[in-house]
Fold:
Amino acid sequence: MEEFAAVSGISRPTVSKYFHDPESVRTSTRERIEAAIEKYDYRPNIYAMNQNRKLTKNVGIVVPYLADPFFAEIARNLEQRCIDEGYRPTLYGSHGEPAHESDILDSLLSLKPAGVLLAPLGRGTDRRVLERFCKAVPTLIFDSNVEEFGIAFVGSDNYQFTSHITDYLCRTGEPPSFFEMKTPANPNAHRRRQSYLTAMEDFGYEPHVISVEGGGWEFEEIGRLGGHNAIEQGLFTTGTVLCSNDRLAIGLLTACYEKGLRVGRGEDCAIRIAGQDNHPYARFTCPPLTTVAHDYDAVSKEAADTLFAAIEGTLSPWSSTRFEGKLLMRDSA
Amino acid sequence: MEEFAAVSGISRPTVSKYFHDPESVRTSTRERIEAAIEKYDYRPNIYAMNQNRKLTKNVGIVVPYLADPFFAEIARNLEQRCIDEGYRPTLYGSHGEPAHESDILDSLLSLKPAGVLLAPLGRGTDRRVLERFCKAVPTLIFDSNVEEFGIAFVGSDNYQFTSHITDYLCRTGEPPSFFEMKTPANPNAHRRRQSYLTAMEDFGYEPHVISVEGGGWEFEEIGRLGGHNAIEQGLFTTGTVLCSNDRLAIGLLTACYEKGLRVGRGEDCAIRIAGQDNHPYARFTCPPLTTVAHDYDAVSKEAADTLFAAIEGTLSPWSSTRFEGKLLMRDSA
DNA sequence: ACAAATAATTTACGCGCGTAAAGATTTAGC
DNA sequence: GCTAAATCTTTACGCGCGTAAATTATTTGT
Structure:
C-alpha cells in the first residue's frame, strides 16, 4: 500500500481511508485512486486489513443444511444482498449436526465478522454456545427462532401457513390428516402441528395427526417409508393429507406411486396431498404439489436489512417479524 | 499469544510452532500447550496468523451453482474431507454467472488459499482469469474440465455414462431419443451427446437428438417446456427418451404428466424416460428415475487427495481421472 | 477575497503473529 | 556417563495495514 500510494501520488492513510469506505474521500481523490487501482491492479491484503480493524466487512451466513434446496436458495438470496451492500459473505452449512454448528460459530468468532445471519438447527442447537456467540457478534436469527437470542428474528408465519392451507383443503374436499415427523429437528414443525389442530377444531372437524419415525435430514426417505406404513395401516382415513413440509410430501408422493395410489384432485384420484414451503421442486412433482409458499424475497430482505441496520449502529430492541405465506393451488390437492 | 505463552510456561515461538503444526513439538510440550488452551480458552488470531504465513490452511471450494443439489452434495462431501485433513474450507457458488465466478477467484486470490477445488462453469468460464489464478494457487478442477488448467482434473467418465445407459435402454426396449439443451453451459453435455451418437451407431440404430431452447440454470423448467413442445410435435418417435441429465428428466416427467402420458416400463405406459447423474431427487420422482450414478465418493476422495498431495509438495504432472458411473435401474425406464 | 470548514499529508506507533539466529536445555543412543 | 541430536528459549525484526495527532493544502460560503 505504501508503494501503491507513492506511485498514485496519494498518501497512504488516504488510500487506507478509501478502502475502508470509498465515499469518505473527496470525489477527485477517489477517481485518482480508482484509476491507479485499475492501472496497477492493486488490492489490499485482507488479513492485514482485518487484523486492526475493529469491524470487518465479513458477514457469515449459516444454514442447517446446504444440500436442502430451500436453504440453498435462501442462502443464495442473502449472499447477493450482502454483496450488494459491500459486505463479504461467507456461507456455512451445519450438516444437520449440532457439533458442527457449534464449530462454525466458534471459528466464525475468530473471523471477527461484522454480523451473522443464522438459521439455527433448532432443537439441536447448543444454547450456551449460541448465547455466548450472540453476545460477541450481531446475530440475526432467521427461519426458526431460538428463544430471543440475537438482535432479531425474521421468518415465516407458520401458524398462518398451516391454517391457510388447512382452510383451503377443508373447503375443497375432505378435511386433511396431518403428516409429520415424530421428532422434527425444526421448531417450526411444532407450530405447524399446533396450527393444524387449532384450525381443524375451528372448522369443527376431528384432527388426525400421523407422526412418523425417523431422524436426520433425509426427509424424502422418511416421508416415503412413513407413507408406506401409513397406507398399509389405513391411516389416511379422509383421503386428504397435509404434510408438515414439502420434502415429506415428496417422499409421500413416491410412496403413493409405489402403492399404486393415484394422487390429485380429480374424480379418479384416491388421495389428495399438500405440502408446505414451496420447495424449489414442488412445482415439478407428479402431480405438481399444492403448497404454501414462503415469501423468500421478503424474508431475506428483512433479514439482511435488519442486520445491516444493527451493524451500522441503529440499535433497536429485539423483535420478531414473520411473513405470511401464499397458497399455491396445484394439482396434487 | 505472548500472555498465553507466559502463563503456560512455554515460549511464544514454541506456541506459534504448535499452532502451525501440533506434531512439530515434543509430545510433552504439546500436552502442556493443549492443557493450557483448555484452561485459558486461547485461540490465535486468524488474520495475524495468515498475514505472515506463506501458506495458509484455507481451501476454497467453488461450484457453479450451490442451489443445485448435485453440487451441494459434492461440495458438502469435499468440505468434510478438507476439515478431516485440518484445512479450513470455504464454500462459494458462482450463481451460474461467469462474472461472479471471476469475482470469486479474484477475492480468493487475496485469501492466499493453500489450494482450491474448482468446478468451473464451463463454457462461460473466463479462460484468462482462470489461467492466471491457476498459476498463483494450486487448483484442482473437478466435474467439468477446462483445457488442461490447474494441477489435475477429476470427474466422471461421461462417455461411459451415456454409452452404458444407452446400451441398457436398447436392450430392454425401443432405442432412445436423446433429450438435451441446445446450448448447455456444461461441456459434459457435449460429451454425452457425442457418446449417444456413437453408441447408437454401434448398435445399428438411427440416432435422434432433440435439442431444446433455454438458458440459465433452471433445467427443470427448460425440460418441462421443451417436453411440451416435443410431445406436441411428436418428436419422441421411439417411446424412449434418454435425457442429458436428471434435472431435464425431472422437467420432462412433469411435462408428460401434464400431457397425460404415462411414464414407465410397464405395458400400459406410453413412454420410457431415463436421466443421468443420479440427482438426489431422482429416487423420489414418480416413477422413480432410471439413471446413471456418479461415484460421488470416489470423485471427491480423488479430488481432495490429489489437491492435498499437491499442497504438501508432491508435484506430479497434470493428469485427468474419470470415474465410471453405475446404472440404477428404476421404474421410469 | 477572506475566514471557516473540509480534506489530505506527514509522522509515528502498534496490532498479533511468523520467523530467523544464537544459545541453553533436554533427550536419545550407546 | 558421555556425546550428538533434537528441542526449547531468548532476542529481535518485520509483515501490511489501521489509526491518531499535528500540520498543511484545498474547498466552501459569503
The longest helix of chain A spans residues 69-84.
